Known about the structure:
Blueprint: E1 15-16, H1 22-25, H2 30-36, H3 51-57, E2 68-76, E3 81-88, E4 94-99, E5 105-112, H4 121-128, H5 141-148, E6 153-158, E7 162-169, H6 172-187, H7 195-202, E8 204-206, E9 215-217, H8 219-229, H9 231-243, H10 265-275, E10 281-287, H11 291-302, E11 328-335, E12 344-351, H12 359-374, H13 379-386, E13 392-399, E14 406-414, H14 419-436, H15 440-456, H16 464-476, H17 489-502, H18 505-516, E15 521-529, H19 532-549, H20 553-571, H21 576-581, E16 600-602, E17 611-617, E18 623-631, H22 643-652, H23 660-670, E19 673-682, E20 699-710, H24 714-727, H25 733-753, H26 755-764, H27 769-778, H28 780-795, H29 797-811, E21 822-828, H30 829-834, H31 836-845, H32 866-876, E22 882-885, E23 892-898, H33 909-929, E24 934-939, E25 945-951, H34 957-964, H35 966-979, H36 981-995, H37 1001-1013, H38 1018-1029, H39 1033-1044, E26 1047-1055, H40 1057-1065, E27 1071-1074
Parallel strand pairs: 4-10, 11-15, 17-21, 22-26, 22-27
Antiparallel strand pairs: 1-6, 2-3, 3-4, 5-7, 5-10, 6-7, 8-9, 12-14, 12-15, 13-14, 16-17, 18-20, 18-21, 19-20, 23-25, 23-26, 24-25
Helix pairs in contact: 4-7, 4-10, 5-33, 5-36, 12-13, 12-15, 12-17, 12-18, 13-14, 14-18, 15-23, 22-25, 24-31, 25-26, 25-28, 26-27, 27-28, 28-29, 33-36, 33-38, 33-39, 35-39
The structure holds zinc ion.
Amino acid sequence: MTMMAFGLSISRGTSVTAFSFAAFSRAPTTAARRQFSTFGYRRTGALQSTMEAVADLTKSMGVEHPAYEIVKNDLVEEYGAATTLYRHKKSGAELLSVSTDDDNKVFGITFRTPPEDSTGVPHILEHSVLCGSRKYKTKDPFVQLLQGSLQTFLNAFTYPDRTCYVVASQNEKDFYNLINVYADAVFHPRAINDPNVHAQEGWHLELENKEDPLIYKGVVYNEMKGVYSSSDSRLSRASQRSIFPDTTYGVDSGGDPKVIPELSFEQFADFHAKFYHPTNSRIYFSGDDDVYARLDIMDEYLKDFDVSPESKPGSVIDWQPKVFSEPQRIVEAYPIGEDQPETNMVNINWLMNDKPFTPAEEMAVGILDHLLMGTTSSILRKTLTESGLGESITGGGLSDELLQATFSVGLKGVKEEDVAKVEELILSTLEKVSEEGFESEAIASSMNTIEFQMREFNTGSFPKGLSFMLGAMSKWLYDQSPTEALKFEEPLAELKARIESSGSEVFQELIKKYLVSNTHRTTVEMRPSKSLETAELEEEKSRLAAIKESMSDEDLEEVIRKTQVLKKLQATEDSPEARATVPALELEDLKRETTEFPIAVTESENDSGVTVIRHELGSTSGIAYVKLGVDLSGLDVEDISLLPLFSRVMMETGAGDFDQVELSRKIGTHTGGISVSVLTTAVHPDGSDESDILDGNYLQTKLIMSGKATSDKTTELFDLMKMILTDARLDSQSRVIEMLKESKSRRESAIIGSGHSAINTRMKARYRVGGYVDEMMGGISQLETLKELLKQAEEDWPTLLARLERIRNTILDQESCRSGMFFDITGDTSVQSKIEDSVHKFLDELPGDANGKKLQNFYKEQHPWVEPIKKLMAELAPIEDEGFIVPTQVSYVGKSGLAYEEGEQASGAAQVVARFLRTGYLWDRVRVMGGAYGGFCTFSPYSGFFSYLSYRDPNLSKTLDVYDEAADAVIAAAEQLKKDPDALSQAIIGTIGDMDGAMSPDQKGYTSLTRWLVNESAEYRQKFRDQILDTKPEDFREFGERLKNLKQSSVAVVSSKGEFDKAKEDGKVMKMKNIV
Length: 1076
Ligand SMILES: [Zn+2]
């Protein structure tokens, strides 16, 4: 199972408080995350919002409360949502109450916080207000909630113009607890009276001995250093700045590391006083909870305040007028590594509108973006990719979540002499489209794709109510109606009618008006610099040296004293009395039973030879979610690392009679999407005790083709899936070269931006076959593979093509392939019965003999890859400390080993201990005291693999020391927990919370499928849950001892050359490798 960082890419330049822990326990599917990025604006919806359901909900509309006046009642039928907008009479706060049948309840409070400079004051404040408040007296109630609540979402984000605090829970008592803590935090934070918070979360000077150099420390300071280490992020920040020369969007609300140290405590406190006022707040509730209770709980906080005009209208966001009479050009440098090729990045950026769009226009602009950029065969994306002028697309097209919409597009990996050609190509393509228009098939495909997404409203594990809030906020924040913005039926119908009568004209007009004839546009060019990283570090060093120079002895002593005070404060445990102020659930509030999902398995259904698996859920809104699994075990081990390329080629080069563009349009027009991925997982051998640690020699390895469509379109969906499976056009040399270039560039960015994930995959590869396979396909070694494949594609295409064809021929082997296939269907009763005939037709037409040879039983025999891979592992992934050098100003530090060995048994209690370590000791030591953005650990009860990881870390060897002391901290905790049963309960509750999150229908089906595939029983899951619920202090001691004796432990680090050199001086010697 791959670890994923949950990138909350809500909008460009948005910062998020906590590196989401949920990433480790409930990683949303890639598909869900990708979709989420389109939810920022109005693309949300529900397929079957029946009027009966709505009628029931209208009862919760217009509920009266003496402290509030009702501004407006409104029904958003698209979502089955009954809403009332209130104004709090005394404070002027606005409150939107949304009633739906969703038990995943959401609360949010948003302030308009436009910054005037790039000190990052909104971002630092966002972190700081969660560090204790009037009623909740611990240092960090936020962490306490992370540790011991059933929350399904708990975070905060800083946008360029607003700061949002959001909590969600399916448990009502928990929900009110969370609201109380957040509401008290935003209005009465400790941070405005105690400068230590600003120092810790923002920035401070650190000095332990007078002769040491001064250094800057701070969580946000370091987080933003990580952000500015990413060239993509530099480009997008420069792009946004360039088109907003006069407004708040021209500065960085997240904070520029060079500017952050200009922020004083007084400015910080003033910013809070001005903007964190009820008058300037927008409060949001959604779900199935009681409306009156919502109004009551907020009145408790709001009633202490009177209206404040300086907060609102004082926070109004000004429109940026279109002031450029001709396009502007900005050239900046970005840092690259020693061995990196010297290529440029270039983005063209437009400020689209300087007054509000009409609803129909806004809908049309969203479709236009999809037509231009939405898929690999969309005209602008395709033209740029095929031009050979660069490695991968930048800019991402439309961004319309702020007051004004922008459009950005460009390329990176561009030769200096080609920069002008890229610009010329973008402009000429747009001009051409504005003259000639789009083909009707392209429009139909984009329209259906967006409409499907709106109606499906599939947010994965992300709370639906939060998507709704983000949609509402994109208008509400600018004093427009929060609910009008969410109604898509009318503008959609209007747009359809317009297309019906005049075809592509509506889009041509938009391109002319907002892009082609719009001179408020900039070109941002980023040029490579090998010395920039060093220069910036030197600049910081000399700045600090100058500061030290200017200080008297007394000044220095004062810095030393403050450093000590802060460190002492950070190291001091909260008293039990302080902890008791933060409200918590009790163990009795938890559900004892595991959640099971329906599954029905039919072997060789209709004598097809294919196993069919069905998950019949309550409602899937008329949609069928299907997965075809094709066995991979027949592949040669040397072809495994080709599978990511093979999966992409299947989807992106055309199939059968359809070329790339036609195929993509067919998919868009008839389905909700098709994708191909690879699933490898260790399984429990038949007859084994499921609690046993797996040796990982029994595996299932499948190519998975996933698709979704409404039940009346499954015939088309299945025809397309079959065509892609058997007839994908593998023979497309130029397309494959483009893909490889792009994949290489993406992998590099992924390693630099999420090095913790890369090193975790790397470390896993040292212990188990499955881990090694994951590394081959998605780790650091995949980057090497991509470089080799690119060379082969360019110089010896026939050989690469033969390899791709060999993969297909092997997995579709006529004699045996059906025996390794499964077809998995998730849908409600009506969907299942409607599609039955098309399913049987599909099974009939699949390749292979229905009565062919049987594959081996993967639950009885070792997987054929095991022996050859073990040989490779011994040679290529030995247990040794490795350091990977990339251009960066932060480190990602990992250490791992086996906490349990084959044949031993890990109890569910180990999950609780690992989580306790992650949210306690590691959070305190790596993040709070170390100044890293994140510090965590992972533990697998299946393989026994345990790892420590840090994220955007200013330290390297110090963090390794922190890891080495972790075991003792866990053992010590065992003693404390004996005296503090509440703390133990919190750790258990948090662990259960991780397991019981909200899921979308397709996630439920997928969970059920993987449980079946790994051969795991419901009895085992219940036993595991019981072990979690019954965790004792003794379990902490036991696990701590295991950490102390971590077997075969080793280190992996992604960092800069300079940091490795420093670590070497501390005796941390690693085998070094330049990878980017
Ligand atoms: Zn942050």
